[in-house]
Amino acid sequence: QVQLVESGGGLAQPGGSLRLSCAASGSFFNIYALGWYRQAPGKQRELVAGITSFSSTNYADSVKGRFTISRDNAKNTVYLQMNRLKPEDTAVYYCNADRVWNRVLSGDSDYWGQGTQVTVSS
Questions:
Q1: In the list 3, 13, 35, 64, which could disulfide-bond 25, CB 3.0-4.6 Å?
Q2: Parallel, antiparallel or unpaired: strands 33-39 and 91-98
Q3: Cα–Cα distance between 73 and 70 in angstroms, integer?
Q4: Which residues on adjacent β-strands are paired with residue 23?
Q5: DSSP-derived secondary structure letter, 64
Q6: What mean pLDDT comes out for the span 23-48?
């Protein structure tokens, strides 16, 4: 069993930065693939970024070059560094985890956090 807790959301100005963290409880964190999703009001949840157990990464086109996903297995934590934020990045951000990479990418994951709100506004 894995429990995920996100933190680091808040209000940022356009062009600003935020770093989200997702701390995981449970064993064998290092073998899990991890991802960040977001859901804006009235929209479907969408994949933002994913990272495999070997730290290969995948990004949505809308965040490439601006967001960076990383993991620290010693701290059981996955991060999302968000730079050059835009108003359209406003959403609730969720992390997910699964032993199967494709399930992280598809959103059909075993484990999800509760979400953290990110608001980008001047």
A1: 3
A2: antiparallel
A3: 10
A4: 5, 77
A5: T
A6: 94
